[in-house]
Write a structure and sequence with these properties.
Layout lengths: L2 H4 L3 H28 L14 E7 L3 H12 L7 E8 L5 H11 L3 E6 L10 H10 L4 E6 L2 E3 L4 H7 L7 E3 L10 H22 L11 E4 H6 L15 H7 L5 E3 L7 E3 L5 H12 L7 H27 L2 H25 L9 H15 L13
Parallel strand pairs: 1-2, 1-4, 2-3, 6-8
Antiparallel strand pairs: 4-7, 5-9, 6-7
Helix pairs in contact: 2-7, 2-11, 2-12, 3-4, 11-12, 11-13
Length: 377
Amino acid sequence: MKLTDFLNSPENIVFLGFCIITFIQLFYYLFFFLRLAYYKQKPRNIFQTQPVSVIICARDEAANLAKYLPGALVQSYRTTHEVIVVNDNSLDESKYLLEEFQKSFKQLQIVELKQEARFIPGKKYPLSIGIKSAKYEIILLTDADCVPASEFWIQKMQETFTDGIEIVLGYGPLHKKKGFFNKIVRWETFHTALQYLSYAESGMTYMGVGRNLGYKKEVFFRHKGFSAHNNIPGGDDDLFINKASTKKNTAIVIDKDTFTLSEPSTSWKQWFRQKNRHYTTSKYYRGIHKFLLGLYAFSLFLFYPLFIASIFLFDWRIVLGVFGIRLIVQAIVIFKTTEKLDEKDLFPWFVFFDVWMFFYYLIFASALLKKPKKSWK
């Protein structure tokens, strides 16, 4: 049958569209995501320890600091290091709590901010002050509501700064809680990590997450800090990394000892607000990154509508065969990556979550058009 004859039928066009979308999905799984699924840390013969500055920005986070800050303070790291907490105009008891911690932990440094930065909304000003206050070249970032998964977080993150590496991307999973909603928000966190860690491993780094991120001070000053996007409230992690990363200066680390755990959203409203805030920065990514991320989201959004339409309009046996090829590849990649990122309980639900992503993109598509809010809290 000639292609022109084949395309004369609307049913055939729908099936062809389904095949094209499936091919695009397979490209992402086999070219990008497979890299993370079978990622192995490069063996090192020499382990160098270097001084490290950990920076945490906090605004009205007294409860979280009391609960999680000890995790950063009791790290098993014998080389010189400091933990800087930038207390950004807090109105709660944070100041007094930090002063009490400082009596027991001499490595804790407190930076008190008592004025707002004009024309620099969000977290960028306090974070910039923290970086400028840091004594050491290697900077590790996390949030006030995060806790390192082990006492070796600093040790193993800094080990990744080998020759030529200036940026290190870690994974920041959410605490596992009871209930299906917890699985939904954790799947989104996992799915995001699947993308940014895989892209980084392919030499196309487009973002990192401030919950678990490291870079050198020299990189920060070379790119003039956050000056390129100071007017945007978000982006202190993803937009900066999008600008500063190259094919050779970025590495990932997925050792479970290097994870930083944070509290998940507990309600749909809270989660929607958080995701809307995050997605308002993606429009400022490099063009190639926006294209690749947009094509992946578009193909995933169309996959199930075209699959259902093809089942009814075309030979269902052939349609299921095409669907099955993608399902097998997807299952292998998801199984391996959930294992590496310690999210194995999500794997039995991956087909449900794959369908859910259609509604997810439908819900959050409007965030790309919204103007970012000025507050980072």
